[in-house]
Here is the input.
Amino acid sequence: MSDVLTHSIVEAGRWIDSQGWCPATGGNFSARIDASSAWVTASGRHKGELTPYDLLRVDSHGQVINSKLKPSAETLLHTALYALDVNIGAVLHTHSVASTVLSRLEASNTLVLHGYEMQKSLSGNNTHDATVAIHIFNNTQDMQALAQQLKNTWAKSPLQWGFLVRGHGLYAWGKDMVEARRHLEGLEFLFACERDMMLLKR
Amino acid sequence: MSDVLTHSIVEAGRWIDSQGWCPATGGNFSARIDASSAWVTASGRHKGELTPYDLLRVDSHGQVINSKLKPSAETLLHTALYALDVNIGAVLHTHSVASTVLSRLEASNTLVLHGYEMQKSLSGNNTHDATVAIHIFNNTQDMQALAQQLKNTWAKSPLQWGFLVRGHGLYAWGKDMVEARRHLEGLEFLFACERDMMLLKR
Amino acid sequence: MSDVLTHSIVEAGRWIDSQGWCPATGGNFSARIDASSAWVTASGRHKGELTPYDLLRVDSHGQVINSKLKPSAETLLHTALYALDVNIGAVLHTHSVASTVLSRLEASNTLVLHGYEMQKSLSGNNTHDATVAIHIFNNTQDMQALAQQLKNTWAKSPLQWGFLVRGHGLYAWGKDMVEARRHLEGLEFLFACERDMMLLKR
Amino acid sequence: MSDVLTHSIVEAGRWIDSQGWCPATGGNFSARIDASSAWVTASGRHKGELTPYDLLRVDSHGQVINSKLKPSAETLLHTALYALDVNIGAVLHTHSVASTVLSRLEASNTLVLHGYEMQKSLSGNNTHDATVAIHIFNNTQDMQALAQQLKNTWAKSPLQWGFLVRGHGLYAWGKDMVEARRHLEGLEFLFACERDMMLLKR
Here is the structure.
């Protein structure tokens, strides 16, 4: 089972790098093992060149299990997501130009998407004629604080598919790596469309 | 024969994915088998990772022939096209940023292209100095209704090469997969040019 | 020798397609054999999927030598270039979005580039602090007329590196395929910069 | 050791070319051998197609050591960097559209980046909430003069990560090739974001 999970992270990394969404060692990825542990990427590795030896296990508090590798600084957000929703099986945190720029230009705490067929790539959506709201958190280097904000926001209303961190990038998730990749790819397509709409509508 | 057809769909999927035109399981492709049946892609598959086992046969009404796979929701548009024009041999439905955005920005039901040499990539055009009109349908989740609109529009004047669905994407076709791919690639190039002209002319 | 030449055309096609500069069977390429003949690409082939069997020989008037293949309609421009300058060894005609759009937006018959280090990729330039002028011909489907315009323009002042055809694309050349590719790549980079300068300077 | 270094340059070239940052033989790369010598790329080679035979050694004054190859004209900037900072192990000079255009549009001698998480890809930065200043030198064909300007600027305040040359491109460096590539990729991502911010903020 671990082989399948670690392979799914390594493969996701190569694909995400080919799209230009994890430059310069940016990004971090994880896959849930069970109720209390997950595989996560080690800090500082280029995410397009991962091997299984660049992954480590962490418990539900983000503590390293039996490894000398250093987990990503943002591991707490991954473990927070696994704790918040038992149905989340994989989390992909990426850095694209569109997600970085749109999250800076949107002054509110929500990027609203509407009227795109591609919204249907996000589980539970079955029409373009609805609104998809993606939460935007302000960026901070205090991961404890950001994880707490995530929990507070979720307590009011659970987030779906992903959230943005301003000037930073996207967290996308799914019940498994296949769905997490679909949500990531769908959201990035929607961001690219929204960027073009902003440019062309003026 | 079926091997050639199914292979042509699988190959088209890899190429279309490499261009970024079928993200997040979006898009669906088909190839006519005979007067009353066609191969179509199953629902929910990533179109860049197709195998022949992700394809199924449907009859001219879009009904599944001898398969447990679920056809794409948009199969009715494929079979409508095959019924409307006996010379159509392959249909490619794709989602690009340019086709999504241009179809939203054009308020009328026609995107008019003029003055591009690339118009000659669309069969029957032999000059840049003419007008290519690409019909735009409003998006809907009611495929029966959209197929009917397509038939009504066609009855007034047959469409050529492809049509857009607003905020959704492109349907392109040809007498065979080679021509369908050429029409797709030519139209996407023209959309990319038109997008740049809109941006730069202002 | 012919093997080297035909291979150089096939390889150029794959690279040009990977850059997106010959979509939908667009473009045509050639390599001089001797004073009175050249290899050219056959009409209608996708230029990213060429084999040596998609090439034919033409004489200095563009007439086919011993082949059943149909040469590109624009063969006359290739042979005109070989006649105009004995030092031209290879010609690459491509369709990029930037060359298509810039040639439409520039109202005069010259696109002027200045201040780019990349100008030095064009043979004979040794500084950014000079002007590179790329001639723009109006598009026409009359290749005899366009070839004649090329000759008339050249008679007044020989062109260097390449020229644009409005709404159509670029012809780039060099003493051999290596230089033709460098001129093509350098000019496309300069067009991409110029497009961005137009967008960002406003 | 030399094999590792030369291989690192060849590999960097392939990757940089795949990103479109060394078109048309542009760019030059180097890796420090010891206190008084470095491997550098020969002039005129396409940097995406390097082999170890396209590399030569130069001393700390940029003089060729035991080779018939001609070093890049900009070798003096590489050796100046190695002399200025003993911790620099690799230097990558690239030409991207974004670095070319942003360096022309910024009228001052500094491009200031702020508020991007990706700033953390540049060694020594541990927050987005700081300012990264990238020096811009005016372009010149006099490499002795440019190397002297670099030394003068450095004497006032050492540069970090990289600098721009106006209308020309980026020099990025690191303690080794891995870090130089990370700085290059991080800076190019930041330039792409900054370009989009300029376009979208208006």
Observations:
- Chain C has one domain: 4-201.
- The beta strands of chain C are 28-34, 37-41, 55-59, 64-65, 90-94, 110-114, 131-137, 162-165, 169-174.
